[in-house]
Write a structure and sequence with these properties.
The complex is a heterodimer. Chain A is of the alpha+beta class. In chain A, strand 8 and strand 9 form a beta hairpin. By secondary structure, chain B is α/β, with parallel strands linked by helices. A 5-stranded parallel sheet of chain B has the order 2-1-3-4-5, with helices on both faces. The radius of gyration of chain B is 13 Å and the shape is globular. Classes of the chains: A alpha+beta, B alpha/beta.
Chain lengths: 1233, 126
């Protein structure tokens, strides 16, 4: 059972159609599939039915037939393909296998069949057949060659028939042999094709273009593409491809390209325009022609080319022509893009399409501008050839003249017809001789020849010609083309040139100027004798080839020369130095230029040089002399012979006041005063004769008319030939000299008068006495003697003053300057005139000043005395004269004020001149010489000061003068310095002098006050160390006097020393508030110690007595000791020292050996006599070294000896101070009392 | 001729004194003196001297000026003048001569000769 069920299951599940039929072809069983086909719900429904029940009759018939067959034969029918139409109408194909069904005995009991639905397959087969058929149709009908290939092994499996048409070969051979195909390929392309093939057989899609060669040799272009075909599994299984014969296309393309290229490259401009006249295409030639690029013109109407030269009718005609489909051809002038005009030949061709309708225009443009120009040029050429002045001939190889121009005809005197019938030998006698053939051959061989020959006119006259003949081939024929120029004139000119060149050469050689030529960087190429001389050679030959640069004198000159020459190409009159062969310089005047260079080398320098050394020397001398003239202080004037001023030096400008430009060209007479004109003219005449006018003094007139005293020398000026060409005047201003002379003579006359005046009195007086005229009148006689004596004195004074003044003014007076104080000077001067003042009843008030001056003491005192005595002279009784000194910056102002009657204005100006006397009364006073003020002025001026007078009539006069002062002492409250200032209060002026006399030598500064007021003022300003109050001061007897001082804060502590009669005792002194007293009259010895003791209370320093007569040295020593805090007293002489020591008792004595009055030795000797001075420490210094015995004589206490020259100041100081310190350390108790 | 009266004009006292003594004692002339030109003119007008001895160099008014003033005054212009001077240059002499003075004497003078020189200049009988 199972087996049967299994079988049934199997049957039902198979997709194949399975049936079992009996012998009557009735279904005994079918499977499900078949049931489905029969459209039965269940297979069992088919049992007992036949095919006729389900299938169309014809099919059922066929099946029954098969069944019958089967039953009969018992042969299976295997895979019979049947078409089945099923009940529902659909059709299928079946592949049926029918088998007889046998029973166990082998009898056929029925049939069974299995049918497979092979519809799909059948459809596929049909489709395939269809497609094969289609394919075949396609393959048979397309022009393309279709091929299929199998890759493994690579072989062609199909090739379409078109192959035969295209390749021209039978397909068979391609099938049979692979290389049969490759052989067909053009050798150049074979590789490419094979590449295609191999790639495609590898499964690549490939394409290639290649050429084939057909059996008839023609070439076809093939475009082949191969595609890989993949099977259902994706595996590459075959190649299909297609190959096209694209020859026509290629050819066509080539053609087009060619055509386009042809169009593009056409030399002519080509424009394709639409029927409407719009440009469609232009070629590059168009752009070249018109300047418009294609991009600009496409779509435009070509009217933009219109030049404006053609009228509208022209363009209308053109348009009409082409519209009627006719070709237009003509010349037209157009305008390019850049505006220029050009001429073109244009052909416009209308193009019609296949229907004959106008579609385009093609215009071809040819620029004929050039051609037109060429035509014109040609015409011109022809014209010029025709008209040329030279004869122009064309000859054939036989020498026949085939063309001759007008000039040729004219020169030969023949007509053109005649000439054209002749040949060259007929016109050229020289060629006639030589023979034409040779000439022809020469020209032909050389191509071109120039020869000088002769032509002969019709009349037989010959003339020289230069012929340039050229061989030509023209149009296949040979010709000779020749110019013939009549060179008669030229020959003549050449001859003349030769002659002139010859002359030139001679000139060159004989030229006095150095002529030469050198290359720019090098050698002397040409040189004449003169040049050789300049350069120092014997002959030009020796100079040739020398290197020119050697002859420049200096690199700078060479550089300048070349630079200038290169800039302008020439140099004219250029002065420079050359260096001769022997190394010496030579000045030359160069006129050179750069020549033309031959063979393109450097340009030579050529020119002339003239030796101007002499001139240069002359010029140098002249310049030198001119500068001497110019710089001379004397006026040097050059005149021509007629007196015209030609040169005018600086001295002349200064003297006359005219600038050179103002006078040159004028007659010299305008400088000469009228009265001397004749004289000057006379001079000029003498000059003309060559005489020199001796130096003489004369008068000239300066600018402004002022007269000048001049000393003048006039000399003739001669030229190089010795001819007098002018005059030179040297004039020196002698006005000053004259002035001096005048002054001198005036002085002399005045002085002589002054001298003679007292002499007159003397002479007169003595004369009378001598004559005994006055014997009887002794009083008168006595009087005469008195007159004589007093006038003699006067004379003496006068002579002294005159000489003084003379010496002062001439600077011969030697001033012995030393440091002085104003106070000292004033005091001494005041002392001298005190008696005079007393006698005149005039009070002298002197305000001293401590300022220091560096002056000649005696002279300044003299000046002060002069002024004071004048003041006294002119002061009425009872009046006061004040003498003051004031510091003004760096000078001291001295003033003498009087209360006299004053000096009138007019007298004030001259008051300092000689012998000016205010009135005669001056004379009466025997003092007056009239030279006092001039002398005073001179003294002041010699000291660098100024003097003047101020005066008010009726009130008085003030004479003032200044003197430079030494720098003021710095006012410090240093005790040491302060100690040196002493304020002296006195009403009586002579006190000042007396005190000054003592103090000044000690280096004290004296301040003078004449009143308490002054005293207080001064004390506050000057801070003196002590006050010396004279008894003449008010309130001296009572203590009230000092009260004034005591009341002021800065004078309260000022020690006061009284100066007067008997010294009060100590109690009284104290009561009066005084620190000390000096009795009058006082001496240095009585005053100084008191002062010292008072002052030295201020300082505790040791006391040093310096004995030195040299003021400068004394000052130095004083300063040294004071710097170390010592109190220093100064003794000028040995005697002074001896006087001072006992009272001063110094701690140290500094002693110079050489002293006035008493020398060092004497001092020591005397001091030894004082007990308390025997042990005085001593610092001795001397000029020379002292020997032992001398030293022994100079000892007191501890003594040191120093030699001035052996010690430096520092050493002296050291030793002296050392001694001092030693001295004071042990002897502090030896203070003053 | 009666005793001539001579006016001496000179600013120098001593010279006046000496000249005065000289002329008075030697020549016996009457002498007037003046110490300045002004004074001289005044005295001349007042006393009408027979001659004037006039110093040239005087302060205030010098000799020549005094002389011109003298000439300007008809009352005294007739008085002859002899100049006394220390200036003896030819130029000066010419200048004085041009003034129109009667004579010029030099300083110093010989007191013994003074009168004679004056008389000679004035053409007085001696």
């Amino acid at each position: 059972m199972e087996e049967r069920d299994l079988l049934h299951t199997l049957m039902d599940n198979l997709p194949d159609l399975i049936y079992f039929k009996d012998r009557e072809s009735r279904f005994t069983r079918i499977n499900l599939a078949l049931a489905g086909k029969f459209d039965l719900d269940h297979p069992s429904l088919a049992i007992g039915k036949t095919d006729f029940d389900f299938l169309p009759a014809e099919h059922a018939e066929a099946f029954h037939k098969d069944d019958a067959e089967l039953l009969r034969t018992g042969q299976p029918i295997v895979n019979k393909e049947e078409r089945g139409v099923w009940p529902d109408g659909h059709v299928t194909w079946l592949s049926t296998t029918k088998m007889p069904l046998r029973d166990a005995s082998g009898d056929i009991i029925g049939t069974f069949g299995v049918s497979r639905d092979i519809t799909d397959r059948k459809q596929a087969e049909q489709a395939l057949r269809n497609s094969e058929e289609q394919f075949r149709q396609l393959a048979d009908n397309i022009h393309e060659v279709f091929f299929i290939g199998e890759p493994d092994p690579p072989r062609l499996t199909y090739l379409s028939p078109a192959y035969e048409a295209v390749w021209g070969r039978p397909r068979q051979e391609a099938y049979e042999r692979a290389d049969a195909w490759t052989d067909t390929i053009h050798p150049d392309d074979r590789e490419r094709a094979i590449n295609l093939l191999s790639r495609s057989y590898q499964g690549e899609q490939a394409s290639a273009d290649y050429r084939i060669v057909r059996p008839d040799g023609s070439v076809r272009y093939i475009k082949a593409r191969a595609f890989p075909v993949r099977d259902a599994g994706g595996k590459f299984c075959r190649v299909v491809g297609i190959a096209e014969d694209v020859t026509d296309a290629v050819r066509a393309e080539q053609q087009t390209r060619l055509q386009t290229a042809a169009l593009e490259s056409a030399a002519n401009g080509i424009v394709i325009a639409s029927r409407e006249g719009r440009i469609i295409w232009v070629n590059p030639a168009f752009t070249r022609l018109t300047g418009y690029p294609a991009s600009e013109v496409i779509g435009e109407n070509p009217r933009f080319l219109r030049s404006g030269l053609h009228d509208s009718a022209f363009y209308q005609k053109l348009w009409n022509t082409i519209l009627s489909r006719e070709v237009w051809q003509g010349e037209i002038v157009n305008r390019r893009k850049d505006g220029t005009l050009y001429t073109e030949e244009m052909t416009i061709t209308p193009v019609c399409d296949a229907q004959g309708t106008l579609s385009h225009f093609i215009a071809i443009k040819q620029d004929v501008t050039a051609r037109k120009q060429a035509e014109r040029a040609l015409r011109l050429t022809q014209f010029s050839v025709e008209r040329a002045s030279d004869g122009i001939y064309w000859m054939d190889p036989q020498g026949r003249i085939v063309y001759a121009n007008e000039a040729a005809c004219r020169s030969l005197g023949r007509s053109r017809e005649e000439l054209l019938a002749l040949s060259i030998p007929d016109i050229d006698p020289m060629i006639r001789k030589v023979g034409w053939g040779t000439a022809w051959e020469d020209v032909k061989a050389q191509g071109s020849r120039v020869l000088v020959t002769q032509h002969q006119t019709k009349e037989g006259r010959t003339f020289p010609v230069e012929v340039t003949a050229t061989y030509l081939e023209f149009d296949g024929k040979e010709y000779s083309f020749a110019y013939a120029r009549d060179i008669t004139e030229r020959l003549r000119a050449e001859e003349a040139l030769r002659e002139s060149e010859e002359r030139y050469r001679m000139l060159f050689q004989r030229n006095l100027a150095g002529v030469f030529r050198s290359s720019m960087d090098g050698k002397i190429l040409e040189c004449n004798q003169a040049m050789a001389n300049i350069l120092g050679f014997d002959s030009p030959q020796k100079a040739l080839g020398c290197s020119a640069p050697e002859f420049y004198f200096s690199d700078e000159e060479r550089a300048t020369f070349l630079e200038k020459l290169t800039v302008d190409g020439r140099l004219s009159n250029f002065e420079m130095r050359l260096r001769r062969n022997d190394g010496n310089p030579v000045w030359v005047l160069a006129n050179v230029s750069l020549g033309t260079s031959a063979e393109g080398g450097s340009r030579p320098i050529e020119g002339t040089f003239i030796n101007i050394t002499k001139r240069k020397l002359a010029e140098a001398t002249r310049d030198y002399l001119a500068s001497i003239v110019e710089s001379s202080e004397d006026a040097i004037i050059g005149k021509s012979l007629d007196g015209t001023i030609q040169t005018w030096n600086r001295g002349a400008e200064k003297l006359y006041g005219y600038a050179a430009s103002e006078v040159i060209g004028q007659s010299v007479l305008f400088l000469v005063p009228a009265e001397r004109h004749k004289e000057v003219e006379g001079f000029l005449n003498r000059i003309k004769r060559g005489e020199r006018i001796e130096p003489h003094e004369t008068v000239r007139i300066a600018k402004g008319g002022g007269r000048l005293d001049v000393a003048v020398t006039i000399s003739p000026l001669k030229n190089a030939d010795g001819e007098v060409v002018g005059a030179s005047t040297v004039a020196r201003d002698i006005s000053e000299r004259r002035e001096i002379e005048r002054t001198k003579s005036e002085i002399v006359s005045v002085v002589s008068h002054e001298l003679r005046t007292p002499l007159t009195s003397i002479r007169g007086a003595l004369g009378l006495l001598a004559a005994g005229m006055l014997r009887s009148q002794p009083e008168k006689g006595q009087r005469m003697l008195e007159i004589a004596v007093s006038n003699t004195d006067r004379l003496v004074r006068l002579i002294n003053d005159i000489l003084d003044l003379e010496r002062l003014e001439s600077g011969k007076m030697i001033l012995e300057k030393r440091t002085c104080t104003a106070a000292g000077l004033m005091t001494q001067a005041a002392d001298s005139v005190r008696d005079l003042a007393e006698k005149a009843g005039v009070t002298l008030s002197v305000s001293l000043h401590s300022a220091r001056l560096w002056v000649d003491q005696d002279r300044i005192i003299q000046a002060l005395i002069n002024l004071l005595s004048n003041a006294i002279k002119f002061s009425p009784r009872g009046k006061t004269i004040r003498l003051t000194a004031t510091r003004q910056a760096d000078q001291i102002l001295f003033q003498v004020k009087d209360q006299g009657r004053g000096i009138p204005q007019e007298k004030r100006e001259n008051i300092f001149e000689r012998f000016q006397q205010v009135d005669a009364s001056d004379r009466r006073e025997k003092g007056g010489t009239g030279l006092g003020l001039p002398i005073t002025r001179s003294i002041v001026q010699q000291h660098g000061g100024r003097i003047w007078v101020e005066s008010t009539l009726g009130q008085g006069s003030t004479f003032s003068f200044t003197l430079p002062s030494l720098p003021a002492e710095t006012v410090t409250v240093d005790d040491g310095l302060r100690a040196r200032k002493v304020l002296v209060c006195a009403v009586e002026a002579d006190i000042f002098g007396a005190v000054q006399a003592v103090l000044s030598r000690q280096g004290y500064t004296l301040l003078a006050a004449a009143s308490w007021q002054e005293a207080i003022e001064m004390a506050s300003i000057e801070s003196p160390g002590a006050v010396l109050v004279d008894s003449s001061m008010p309130g001296m007897d009572s203590g009230q006097a000092i009260t004034a001082l005591k009341q002021q804060s800065h004078t309260r502590d000022l020690p006061v020393i009284g100066l007067g009669g008997t010294a009060p005792d100590e109690i009284q002194l104290a009561a009066r508030g005084m620190a000390g007293w000096v009795t009058k009259p006082f001496t240095q010895a009585s005053l100084l110690p008191v002062l010292e003791s008072v002052l030295s209370k201020l300082s505790e320093g040791p006391r040093v007595l310096v004995v030195e007569d040299d003021a400068d040295l004394a000052r130095v020593l004083t300063t040294v000791f004071e710097r170390h805090g010592a109190v220093v007293l100064l003794a000028r002489t040995g005697q002074e020292a001896v006087d001072l020591c006992p009272s001063f008792i110094p701690d140290l004595l500094v002693l110079d050996v050489i002293l006035p009055e008493l020398d060092g030795f004497g001092v020591v000797e005397q001091l030894r006599q004082h007990a308390h001075l025997q042990r005085l420490p001593l610092a001795v210094y001397s000029v020379k070294e002292l020997d032992d015995s001398e030293k022994a004589r100079l000892r007191l206490g501890e003594s040191i000896f120093m030699t001035k020259s052996r010690l430096t100041p520092q050493e002296f100081e050291q030793r002296a101070i050392g001694l001092l310190n030693w001295a004071t350390s042990g002897q502090r108790e030896r203070r003053r009392r | 001729m009666k005793k001539p009266r001579v006016l001496i004009v000179d600013d120098e006292d001593d010279i006046r004194e000496v000249a005065e003594i000289s002329l008075e004692m030697i020549a016996g002339w009457k002498v007037l003196t003046a110490s300045s030109g002004c004074e001289g003119l005044r005295i001349a007008r007042a006393d009408q001297p027979d001659a004037i001895l006039l110093d040239v160099m005087m302060p205030d008014m010098d000799g020549p000026t005094t002389f011109r003033k003298l000439q300007d005054d008809p009352a005294i212009r007739h008085i002859p003048v002899v100049l006394l001077t220390a200036k003896l240059q030819p130029a000066d002499r010419r200048r004085f001569a041009e003034l129109g003075v009667a004579g010029v004497l030099a300083k110093p003078f010989d007191p013994l000769e003074l009168a004679g020189q004056i008389a000679k200049a004035l053409h007085w009988p001696t």
